[in-house]
Amino acid sequence: MTTQLKLDGRTIRLDIAGRKPALRLAFDGMRHEVIELPAEDGAFELKFDGRLYRGWRYAGEREIYVRLDGRTFVMSLAEAGGASEAKGRHANAVRSEMPGTVIGIHCARGDEVRAGDTLITIESMKLQIGVAAPRDGVIEDIHVAANATFERDALLVSFTALAELADADLMEKRA
Amino acid sequence: MFSKVLVANRGEIAARIMRTAKEMGIATVAVYHHLDRGAPHVRMADEAVELDGDVPTKAYLDQEQIIGICARLGVEAIHPGYGFLSENAEFAERVTKAGIVFIGPDAGAMHLMGDKVRSRNFAAEHGVPVAPSVLQGDDPENFLARAKAIGFPLLIKASAGGGGKGMKIVREAGDLVEAVRTASSEAERYFGDGLVYAEKLVERGRHIEVQVIGDGTGRVLHLCERECSIQRRYQKIVEEAPAPNLSDDLRQRIRAAAVRLASAAKYRNAGTIEFILGADGDFYFLEMNTRLQVEHPVTEMILGLDLVAEQFRVAAGEGLSFRQEDIKPSGHAIEVRICAEEPEKDFRPAIGRVGLLRLPKGEGVRFDGGIAEGQAVTPAFDSMLAKLIAHGGTRAEAISRMKLALADLALLGVPTNIDYLARVMAHPAFAAARIDTGFLSEHAGTLNPDDAVAELERAACAAAALAQSDFRRLAFDVPEPHAAMGGWRN
Fold first, then answer.
1. Where would a tag sit more exposed on chain B, N or C end, judged by fewer CB atoms within 10 A?
2. Stated pTM of the model
């Protein structure tokens, strides 16, 4: 069974290649011996191919944080196939990464927007932040009103990607 | 000296102030919004009172409640910290009227310095250089024409502003109208006053500020200067003292200008006069902050002083405990601001939880924080979580101590700028003190993280995977006949 970790937008595939005499993990086919040593609370010590690594780690609700050699790695467990397909269907939904207040709406239903266009401006942590269109498309609906507050993950704007519209047009013409 | 003070603030600065109060034998009262229940500043205080109110920041701004608590608990003085009510002249006045000492300047000095236009005029009257500028309020009809006459690039600023809000850079005449409009609307939104002014933009300027302290009689001492040019969103993230790469003559002139201004205002309290220093050596007054500054620790570290203790003494009428001749800086100090944010995403603020916190130790290292493990980092408050300060005999030593301290600091559970700050410290231009306010954008490319060594990254992934109970079960809890896992089964 493959465990997938997401790091900086990449997916790292990790398999248990062996358990005896020591745990062996395969990263994209490359095998490494991993021996866990006892460590104080919050810390870890690993012998990775015989080399000692000491660091700190914390598993939060969404991400796992690892601090190693002066670097912070923020990883999440990638969703299994079904879930990521479901997510793909909603890739045209723009959600908020943090709670905030809507202070400006710069698009309207039916508008054609380009990737990177600012769709709405939100305020969070005393800062104004522009929420940009992730790709070219047409605004389907705006789900928040000016001055409304919203929670993390709230649906802000939904739109149809231009690529999909082009497909649909093509299908219509063919039909 | 006072026997009991209330700290009208939260986070690291409330904890910082209470530390000194305790050392001086002064009892402390904390106020807090319920989101901060259990926060370090609340636990540190001898007494703590919850503020009523739904909106967290508004609770800390609730003058009436705070003054009422003082009356009820027999508080003699209020320390406002920075931000919140610290530069609110009306609050200072109300506190004083209620018979409580406001640890800060008198309301008159706050009123004078709180308005950009008034303070600039005051500076100019007292021979402190100000950048060429025109005010919208003087002649709104001809404002655009008058602004153009200064020449581009221009900076449009809110008259009532601060913190970069309502500030726009204009490089061409064609962009002026739009910049004035947006600056004015931001100013209206943040300060309730849409008036703006246009000022000559000092390109590649350095932000140099002078720490002063005055006793209210016109006696003002400078406590050296700080270099705070490394900024993002017009907010400082790295500060140091003394300022590197300044000629003695220029350093003395900047300090003297600051003292002249604060003396003229008969300033009482610790305060900071901010200047922008151009590449040509000309410097201009920006503003005066009539409060303790976030970056005050670098000054404390090079002078061996406690600025909060001095604030208490001046406010209690005990005067200054030292003379200008006693101010002899030793070595160099650097501070970095640890913020919950994602530098790779345009420094966007982040939320999460302080899941794990391990502080660096080491000579000359100081950590000013107001966070504890388990604490949520919410969008309700500012994204600055803590400050890390390193002092050394030389600037190079301070940098190398800071690098070690940053590497040893673990704050996990919320994205932070810790790794980014470490890259700033390691940057050759920073080491060479080639610094100006454009530093972070100029070096954006070289401040990006380099790819981790593959093996390091895989070790980190292994550690992450092994932090998951599901993965541990797969790795270790194998059914017979594979169960001979030996002694290292957890």
1. C
2. 0.85
